[in-house]
Specification:
The structure holds two protein chains of two kinds. By secondary structure, chain A is mainly α. Chain A has a domain of about 190 residues: ABC transporter involved in vitamin B12 uptake, BtuC, CATH 1.10.3470.10. Chain A contains eleven helices and no strands. Chain A is globular and about 60 Å long. The two termini of chain A are about 30 Å apart. Chain B has a single domain, classed as Rossmann fold (3-Layer(aba) Sandwich), CATH 3.40.50. Chain B is about 30% helix and about 25% strand. Chain B has eight helices and eleven strands. In chain B, a hairpin with a 5-residue loop joins strand 10 and strand 11. By secondary structure, chain B is α/β, with parallel strands linked by helices. Classes of the chains: A mainly alpha, B alpha/beta. Chains A and B meet through helix 7 and helix 8 of A and helix 3 of B.
Chain lengths: ~280, ~250
């Protein structure tokens, strides 16, 4: 009885986690891939590790520490690149390493037992709490509303910022707001795949979608579908084989990308359903 | 009804702490077609940005006719490089973005807007390309898409920044002919290096080199270039492509 209940909660957690992770990653991922912000997002996710370490040290929820760290580093990088005071890629590189170093030092300084580093670096489904799933669910709703309501405004700003400035005084507001949402999305997905792998969760699904579709809104939808297929398959595989979940999810997504690419290459069919590839 | 659109009085603009435009007195009239010439760094683009309201003068004034806000009156074709040509946005969506000026933050495109976009596309010879992406198009077609974005809102004034830069030679004449058509409906202010080509189409020209001299005739002669102290690049055509640099 207890065993089946545990199993049920594990499946439910996995299913809901997969739905919310694929929605948030699909929306945020299509934005960062289209705007060529993948490296920036990699920097944000690694910088957030400093917040995780600080969280442990201060005895607060490490994810809250990570959220604060990632939002500030994201806004900092956007600000510096808008001002053009520093080369953006250098700023990202510095922040990337600084966050990791800070995280390691704080975790080392934390008295008592050493928290499980691996679960934050590479993700662990066992550490995902109900609160994490709820947070990810709320983030999904926020992102759907945000992108749904301001679709054209967000798209046109990232397509041609200079032109957008000729008609809108809110260009910077939207840039900073969207970047903050991206940072939060990254942090909330860290539980799934870890600091090191989370960037692939955002970038692989839109890249699968872009293999067979070209318009922004369609890329988002197919990225969510591809993401869900990859996450759920990876999740199940990791459960049955007893291997790490985060790594298995990313591995599955890459395999999915290769399969779709190969199928498109060797068939005249341009549109295929990535969900059928399992 | 007054025949002016934009009027600048004793206008001075600084950029990064440096005065780029100084004491400009300039009026843009309805239906004028003004070629803006002058050296690089002379303030041509800053002049456009001042009219668009992106850059603000530290001295003097700029006024717009009929109480219409600057942005609603003006169409803008920036140098083509400002848009990301690899962005997953269709031709129709790019053209529709020219209507964002009149839209609130939360707004959708209506059926009328979409029909208007189709009409602009057919006028510019882009019919059938509405769901193509920019990267699929030739340089000339891309330029027409951006022109479509600038004119879809029926502006009273069209600002063009170096439109010749990325246009292929085959399309160049078509492009200027199209501008001549548009000039029946709107005034045009066009920044260009290629005064050789544009002199056939413009009605007047302005030489911008920190100061601005307006010349209400399309004839660009040595004398008036010299008089305005305007160093200029003259492009001529011959068997061997060559550039003649005018000495002052």
């Amino acid at each position: 009885m207890e065993n089946s209940l545990l199993q049920y909660s594990f499946i439910l957690k996995g299913l809901l986690g997969a739905v919310f992770a694929s929605i948030t990653a699909g929306l945020a991922g299509t934005y960062i891939v289209s705007r060529k912000m993948v490296f920036l997002s990699g920097g944000i996710s690694h910088a957030s590790f400093g917040g995780i370490g600080l969280g442990f040290f201060a005895g607060i929820n490490p994810i809250i520490g990570a959220a604060v760290f990632s939002i500030f580093s994201a806004l900092g990088i956007e600000y510096l690149s808008v001002r053009q005071k520093i080369r953006e890629d250098s700023a990202i590189g510095i922040l990337w390493a600084f966050g990791m170093a800070t995280g390691i030092i704080f975790i080392y300084l934390t008295p008592g037992y050493a928290p499980n580093l691996m679960s934050y670096l590479f993700g662990s489904i066992l550490t995902v709490t109900t609160a994490d799933i709820i947070a990810l669910g709320i983030m999904s709703v926020i992102l759907i509303l945000y992108f749904g309501i301001f679709y054209r405004t967000i798209l046109y700003i990232s397509f041609d910022e200079d032109f957008a400035r000729t008609y809108s005084p809110y260009v910077n507001v939207f840039k900073y707001l969207t970047t903050s949402f991206i940072a939060l999305t990254i942090v909330l997905n860290i539980r799934m795949t870890g600091v090191v792998l989370v960037i692939s969760l955002l970038t692989i699904p839109p890249n699968i979608a872009m293999l067979f579709t070209r318009e922004y809104n369609k890329i988002v939808i197919w990225a969510i579908i591809a993401g869900f297929a990859g996450i759920i398959t990876g999740y199940a595989t990791s459960y049955f084989l007893g291997i790490p979940t985060g790594a298995t999810i990313i591995f599955t997504l890459v395999i999915l990308w290769i399969i779709v690419k190969t199928v498109i290459r060797f068939s005249s069919v341009r549109k295929i359903n990535p969900g059928e590839k399992q | 009804m007054p025949d002016w659109l934009v009027s600048m009085k004793s206008l001075s603009v600084a950029y990064n702490g440096k005065v780029v435009l100084s004491d400009i007195n300039f009026t843009i009239r309805k239906n004028d077609f003004i070629g803006v010439i002058g050296p690089n760094g002379g303030g041509k683009t800053t002049l456009l940005k001042t009219i668009l309201g992106i850059v603000h003068p530290f001295r003097g004034s700029i006024e717009f006719n009929e109480g219409i806000e600057a942005s609603k009156l003006i169409g803008y074709l920036p140098q083509i490089s400002t848009g990301d040509l690899n962005y997953p946005l269709t031709v129709k969506d790019v053209i529709l973005s020219g209507l964002m000026i009149r839209k609130k933050l939360v707004s959708r495109m209506s059926e009328t807007d979409r029909q208007k976009a189709e009409k602009v596309m057919s006028e510019l010879g882009l019919s059938g390309l509405s769901s193509a992406l920019l990267k699929d198009l030739s340089g000339g077609q891309q330029q027409r898409v951006f022109l479509g974005r600038a004119i879809i809102g029926d502006p009273g004034l069209l600002l063009l920044d170096e439109p010749g830069t990325f246009v292929d030679a085959n399309f160049e004449n078509d492009f200027y002919e199209k501008l001549r058509d548009l000039n029946r409906k709107m005034a045009i202010l066009m920044v260009s290096h290629d005064i050789g080509t544009i002199s056939a189409y413009i009605k007047s020209f302005a030489c911008v080199n920190r100061t601005l001299h307006y010349h209400p005739s399309s004839e660009i002669t040595n004398e008036n270039l010299l008089a305005y102290g305007c160093p200029i690049q003259l492009v001529t055509h011959g068997d061997v492509p060559h550039t003649v640099l005018k000495i002052h």
